[in-house]
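BUG-203 | component: ligand-complex export | severity: low

The export step for 2-acetamido-2-deoxy-beta-D-glucopyranose jobs runs without errors, but we want the raw record kept on the ticket for reference. Input record follows.
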Amino acid sequence: MAARVLVLASILIFSCFAETCYGVISFSSLQRTLVVTASHRQGLLKAGEDKITVRWGLNQSFPAGTDSSYKTIKVQLCYAPISQVDRAWRKTEDHLNKDKTCQFKIVKKPYTNVNETLEWTIERDVPTATFFIRAYALDSDDHEVAYGQNTDAEKKTNLFEIQAITGRHVSLDIASVCFSAFSVVSLMGFFFMEKRKARKSQQ
Ligand SMILES: *[C@@H]1O[C@H](CO)[C@@H](O)[C@H](O)[C@H]1NC(C)=O
Ligand SMILES: *[C@@H]1O[C@H](CO)[C@@H](O)[C@H](O)[C@H]1NC(C)=O
């Protein structure tokens, strides 16, 4: 009985340990073996309207078999450093479970060893920010094993800006708040002037 409990406990402890070991995948440990490019029209892109053409494939300068463990490809839209400043909820962490750089899924599909192309319409819930595109290769356990992105390691080149669908409404809202503040102030001014006038005429 005691032995069984002991075995059970050790299995439990061991599986927890294995779980955490497996869970810790750091971005810096991944090899950049995928080539990712993104093409789109020039200028500010509009969420819900504009399209981005994403291409990805294995960098042919890696030896054959590099991709033998790749089962799935996951392509994501990621925040550029300029849009992460002072925003903890978009922070880059080396520990991929905690990383918040890439929050928007573009596609997740089985890996094939040929170049692939996808035309993606920017989803309506994408906020106003500067972005890049990253693809992860996942193994049969759905763990990241390699990546590629359309920007350099510093995330400075080929970035693009997206304007949220509500962008126009937000600026309209700001304008109307300003107008209301202005009218309240002028109303108060008018009220005090009237009061002063009334007091003067009483004296
Ligand atoms: C492919 O990989 C090589 C070696 O890592 C690298 O020098 C080259 O820039 C990569 N090509 C592309 C298009 O990323
Ligand atoms: C994928 O595209 C790159 C350049 O765009 C090319 O060098 C490579 O040979 C292509 N790979 C395949 C498997 O077609």
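Assignee comment: Attached the raw record above. The longest strand covers residues 129-138.
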